[in-house]
Specification:
Blueprint lengths: L4 E7 L3 E8 L4 E8 L11 E2 L1 H19 L6 E8 L4 E4 L10 E2 L7 H11 L1 H8 L8 H11 L1 H9 L3 E4 H9 L9 E3 H4 L5 E2 L4 E2 L1 H7 L8 E3 L6 E2 L11 E7 H8 L8 E5 L3 E8 L10 E8 L3 E10 L3 H9 L9 H6 L9 E3 L17 E3 L7 H27 L6 E4 L6 H11 L3 E4 L4 H13 L6 H5 L4 E5 L5 H18 L5
Helix pairs in contact: 1-6, 4-5, 9-14, 10-12, 12-13
Bound molecules: adenosine-5'-diphosphate.
The site of adenosine-5'-diphosphate (ADP) has 15 residues, from α10 and α11.
């Protein structure tokens, strides 16, 4: 047993992965497996919790084999997970009562509306830092209690455990019915609508609002400490400590080493998730940002973040590819955009399903404006890329106002950061350096950091951050007048997109 490695599970929306890192943060082995997306009704999205357990076991075994090591060679493992997705199970049999309800699932719209009508939205913003929404776990638990007979009966019989995916995986990995640990961390708990975000404890008032008994919920622990050990009969084959838990976006924040207040990361995937560390300050947004726990550890306590989500980013490039057939592969958007020298006066507001942060406007719909005879496909491709940067600029501006702290730089990750034109324009607009790291796997790396720091595999945050190097930094190169013009054009276009749906 060398204990020279750290393992991390990344249980995501579409797949489960296990990655083995060495002390220098190099990826030694990695295995990944997709799971089924189950759509039983319009707006419903489910995962089979047992399939997730099986797949996670498989990828753990595969990666260990690839690395030529055993579970005993891992000093610890960490877990990062798709957030908010909720599982209900029987602690006696270890089996789930129904499929997991996934974060994207909107079946709880009526529950959310009713809660908002009865209690007012402010209660939830004040206590939890969140709006009442189908997005968060509390509404999903309530739906299960209201609609799944087995769950209702289990609640009466004292045979109910609830959890997000981190909790489900760790309970099973640590022995399940044979004394598995029923735990979560504050980042995941901060997405349930059940946690007092200031105290990082389940809030009795919120539990009453949702009709949930604290006994069904996991214990809220920090993001970096030894919670339990793996069952040697499980896929690790050893009693490896489990010592890190972080929701996926928070894990990316840590994997990007945004440990100081004011540091921010943006993940450019299908949509964008921008998180900014606000340190010990619990900032309640005045601009539609969510307040969330960034991470917590037993030594430094709880650190908070503001989070802004943008619904349409990479999916706009997919739309140009699939609906307008502009190109065959997403990366070709850059070639097309480079056939022109600027956007030709075109602004593209991709409010395909309304506008998210900072506007939260359901009445908006997508538009392209500024069209003339001069405009060609290149300008439209360019306007689409610019739209992603403009939306990020709006969220960053709102966050800076909320936090009252200047931003020093933006760390970036996700599929779209391979697009040089976009990243340069982003840096120009923000008037800030924009950097991407060598290790693209920021999410899984964050979970590895949390686990490794807890067991002394790495001595401190400074040591781990010293291991993370940047692959590229884009520096701003746009004069103020050009930037102001661009931003004004965008803001006017956004105004035009609003109020379309009556
Ligand atoms: P997710 O994790 O949300 O699935 P990824 O981080 O894998 O997303 O990024 C994929 C998204 O990035 C897709 O929507 C795709 O259109 C977009 N994308 C990938 N490469 C590029 C590129 N070179 N330029 C612009 N967009 C890209």
């Amino acid at each position: 047993m060398s204990r020279d490695y750290i393992g991390a599970i990344d249980q995501g929306t579409t797949s489960s992965r296990f990655v083995v890192f060495d002390r220098a943060c190099r990826v030694v082995a990695s295995a990944q497996k997709e799971h089924k997306q189950i759509f039983p009704n319009p707006g419903w999205v489910e995962h089979d919790p047992e399939e997730i357990i099986i797949n996670t076991g498989q990828v753990i075994r595969q990666a260990l084999e690839q690395a030529g090591i055993s579970g005993g060679d891992l000093a610890a493992i960490g877990v990062t997970n798709q957030r908010e997705t909720t599982v209900a199970w029987d602690p006696k049999t270890g089996k789930a009562y129904c499929n997991a309800i996934v974060w994207q699932d909107t079946r709880t719209a009526a529950i959310s509306d009713a809660l908002k009508a009865k209690h007012g939205g402010e209660l939830f913003w004040d206590k939890c830092g969140l709006p009442v929404s189908t997005y968060f776990s509390g509404t999903k638990m309530k739906w299960m209690l209201d609609n799944v007979a087995d769950v209702r009966q289990a609640a009466k019989d004292g045979r109910l455990m609830f959890g997000t995916i981190d909790t489900w995986l760790i309970w099973r990995l640590s022995g399940g019915p044979k004394g598995g640990a029923h735990v979560t961390d504050a980042t995941n708990a901060s997405r349930t609508l059940l946690m007092d975000i200031a105290a990082t404890k389940w809030d009795q008032g919120m539990l009453d609002v949702f009709g949930i008994d604290a006994a069904w919920l996991p214990e809220i622990r920090s993001s970096s400490e030894v919670y339990c050990h793996c069952d040697p009969a499980g896929p690790l084959g050893a009693d490896t400590p489990i010592s890190g838990i972080l929701g996926d976006q928070q894990a990316a924040l840590c994997g990007q080493c945004c440990f100081e207040p004011g540091q921010a990361k943006n993940t450019y995937g299908t949509g964008c998730f921008l998180l900014m560390n606000t340190g010990k300050d619990l900032v309640h947004s005045k601009h539609g940002m969510l307040t969330t726990v960034a991470y917590s550890d037993p030594v430094h306590g709880v650190h908070y973040a503001l989070e802004g989500s943008i619904a349409v980013a990479g999916s706009l490039i997919q739309w140009l590819r699939d609906n307008l057939m502009f190109f065959n592969n997403a990366p070709e958007v850059e070639e097309l955009a480079r056939t022109v020298k600027d956007n030709g006066g075109v602004y593209f507001v991709p409010a395909f399903s309304g506008l998210f942060a900072p506007h939260w406007d359901n009445t908006a719909r997508g538009l392209m404006i500024g069209l003339t005879h001069y405009v060609n496909r290149g300008h439209i491709a360019r306007a689409a890329l610019e739209a992603v940067a403009f939306q990020t600029w709006e969220v960053m501006r709102a966050m800076a106002e909320d936090a009252g702290k200047p931003l020093a730089e933006l760390k970036v990750d996700g599929g779209m950061v391979e697009n040089d034109l976009l990243m340069q324009f982003q840096s120009d607009l923000l008037s800030l350096p924009v950097s991407k790291p060598v290790i693209k796997e920021t999410t899984v790396l964050g979970a590895a950091f949390a686990a490794g720091l807890a067991v002394g595999f790495w001595p401190d945050k400074e040591a781990v951050c010293g291991l993370v190097s940047l692959e590229k930094t884009w520096t701003p190169n746009m004069n103020e007048q050009t930037r102001n013009q661009a931003v004004n054009g965008w803001l006017r276009a956004v105004e035009k997109s609003r109020g379309w749906i009556r």
